[in-house]
């Protein structure tokens, strides 16, 4: 049965219901009645910059949805701090019961974090609570709990996840820094997952002073220090008994992994400390550089400046006049550093990274979402799909300087999602967007037309309405006929209640005039019709 259904705000966004209420009110947002999410104002309406696409709600009432994937045509959503895997039908309806409910430590960066589906096998990454109950850092239950970040394989029987098999275990620092958890599937059924640095500064963060550290994770007898497996991407070979390979290192903090469906190359997002968020092409034995370098090596970065008293040393170690390059880490165990393919100088908090399927369009693009500004960026791939090719001269150096909303228009695809974006994915020509604080999954897709010619009298009506020869009621009556007779198909996720005022904004009239005169196409005109339907001025029966 189914029922209807800074650096980063990530640092404080997660918690139990009381914490949710506290967090929402702290930021000026009331909590929902269920205390599952924050309630945002009407001005928080998502917008897509391409007039050929429309945006609507797919599912609501979720509790901090952090990762999404599909099994068949059903969506699986991870609720970060409830520890529940929620199943949603293809028409956006939540099933009565979760398909899995695990005990997690969930505050800050930890919790139920990553998912990758492989037919009847589902892989999950989560911070497992050893107490057997969902706990938040600092609570009395956690004081004696030694939680672990764990990767499991589950069997999927069409209704539930069962038979967990532990594949990998990591420390889970009480500091709750940079647990990672993002997962994705490769073209050959391999599974990739990432763990952040967890506040460590060891071998996998390019701190190799101890010669006894080995990439094999074996502590040499000359070492008394543990080898923390942090700041890395791992690959699971599902065809070889889930054997695990260290794939990349030097990663500070990542929330996004994606595989190019054409080349099979792995890409990731990486969050800088205060500057230079990254988008990386992650080839085997890739070293992202942290904590020697973040962003392009030839750009000064206060976060890694050797003379700033930061992570690389103190001010006495170098001359006060030092300016310039960040120190590139030496090749270590065949892991080689390379610059990111793109960087944001002003941090945006990048989260998911995803490639569209063929039916969505944008076949030569890569999409990245952010949490800080709730925006989705589109990056034009170059001919061999190993980097980007921008038309704007401001992006030729592959660095976005300045604020996110002052970037060239070609970079921004959508924005204004309430409460930040935690994940994006594509399925059957639709982009699905998880709005973390809003507890909502949105969908973006092409506007559909029937292919039937719009009668001339409809356009005449629009022109007459603009100059005042017919009134609002006559204009709306014509639009109702157009839609109810299937000549123009308007995809709307939710229809508004019939308005008592039925006041049509002036901008609607302006776009109607442009459409009647051929200055804009029907896709652009439909955006106004969507607004009229959503606000109850046009009622579809």
TrEMBL record:
<dbReference type="InterPro" id="IPR012938">
    <property type="entry name" value="Glc/Sorbosone_DH"/>
</dbReference>
<dbReference type="InterPro" id="IPR011042">
    <property type="entry name" value="6-blade_b-propeller_TolB-like"/>
</dbReference>
<dbReference type="InterPro" id="IPR011041">
    <property type="entry name" value="Quinoprot_gluc/sorb_DH_b-prop"/>
</dbReference>
<feature type="domain" description="Glucose/Sorbosone dehydrogenase">
    <location>
        <begin position="62"/>
        <end position="293"/>
    </location>
</feature>
<dbReference type="Pfam" id="PF07995">
    <property type="entry name" value="GSDH"/>
</dbReference>
<protein>
    <recommendedName>
        <fullName>Glucose/Sorbosone dehydrogenase domain-containing protein</fullName>
    </recommendedName>
</protein>
């Amino acid at each position: 049965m189914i029922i209807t259904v800074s650096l980063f705000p990530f640092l404080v966004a997660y918690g139990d219901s009381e914490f949710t209420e506290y967090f929402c009110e702290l930021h000026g947002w009331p909590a929902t009645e269920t205390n599952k999410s924050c309630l945002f104002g009407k001005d928080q309406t998502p917008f897509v910059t391409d007039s050929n696409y429309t945006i609507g709600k797919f599912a609501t009432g979720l509790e901090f949805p952090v990762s999404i994937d599909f099994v068949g045509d059903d969506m699986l959503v991870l609720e970060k701090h409830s520890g529940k895997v929620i199943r949603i039908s293809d028409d956006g309806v939540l099933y009565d019961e979760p398909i899995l409910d695990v005990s997690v430590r969930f505050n800050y960066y930890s919790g139920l974090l990553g998912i990758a589906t492989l037919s009847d096998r589902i892989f999950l990454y989560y911070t497992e609570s050893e107490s057997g109950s969902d706990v938040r850092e600092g609570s009395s239950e956690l004081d004696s709990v030694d939680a672990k970040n764990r990767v499991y394989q589950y069997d999927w029987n069409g209704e539930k996840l069962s038979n967990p098999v532990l594949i990998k275990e990591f420390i889970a620092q009480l500091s709750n820094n940079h647990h990672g958890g993002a997962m994705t599937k490769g073209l050959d059924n391999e599974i990739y997952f990432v763990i952040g640095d967890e506040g460590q500064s060891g071998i996998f963060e390019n701190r190799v002073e101890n010669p006894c550290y080995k990439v094999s994770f074996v502590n040499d007898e000359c070492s008394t220090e543990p080898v923390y497996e942090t700041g890395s991407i791992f690959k699971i070979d599902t065809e070889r008994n889930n054997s695990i390979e260290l794939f990349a290192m030097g990663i500070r903090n990542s929330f996004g992994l994606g595989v190019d469906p054409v080349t099979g190359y792995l890409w990731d997002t990486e969050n800088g400390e205060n500057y230079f968020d990254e988008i990386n092409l992650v080839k085997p034995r890739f070293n992202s550089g942290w904590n020697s370098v973040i962003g392009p090596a030839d750009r000064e970065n206060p976060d890694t400046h050797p003379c700033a008293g930061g992570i690389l040393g103190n001010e006495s170690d170098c001359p006060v006049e030092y300016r310039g390059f960040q120190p590139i880490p030496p090749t270590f165990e065949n892991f080689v550093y390379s610059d990111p393919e793109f960087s944001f100088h002003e941090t945006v908090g990048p989260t998911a990274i995803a490639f569209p399927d063929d039916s969505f369009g944008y076949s030569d693009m890569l999409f990245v979402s952010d949490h800080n500004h709730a925006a989705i960026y589109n990056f034009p791939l170059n001919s061999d799909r190993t980097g980007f090719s921008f038309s704007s001269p401001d992006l030729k150096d592959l660095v976005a300087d300045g604020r996110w909303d002052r970037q060239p228009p070609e970079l921004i695809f959508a924005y204004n999602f309430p409460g930040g974006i935690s994940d994006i994915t594509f399925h059957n020509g639709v982009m699905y967007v998880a709005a973390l604080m809003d507890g909502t999954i949105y969908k973006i897709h092409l506007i559909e037309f029937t292919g039937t010619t719009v009668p001339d009298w409809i356009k005449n009506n629009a022109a007459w309405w603009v100059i005042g020869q017919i009134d609002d009621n006559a204009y709306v009556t014509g639009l109702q006929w157009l839609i109810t007779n299937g000549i123009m198909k308007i995809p709307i996720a939710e229809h508004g209640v019939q308005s008592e005022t039925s006041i049509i904004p002036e901008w609607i009239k302006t776009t109607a005039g442009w459409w009647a005169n051929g200055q804009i196409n029907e896709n652009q005109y439909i955006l106004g019709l969507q607004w009229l339907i959503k606000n109850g001025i046009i009622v579809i029966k």
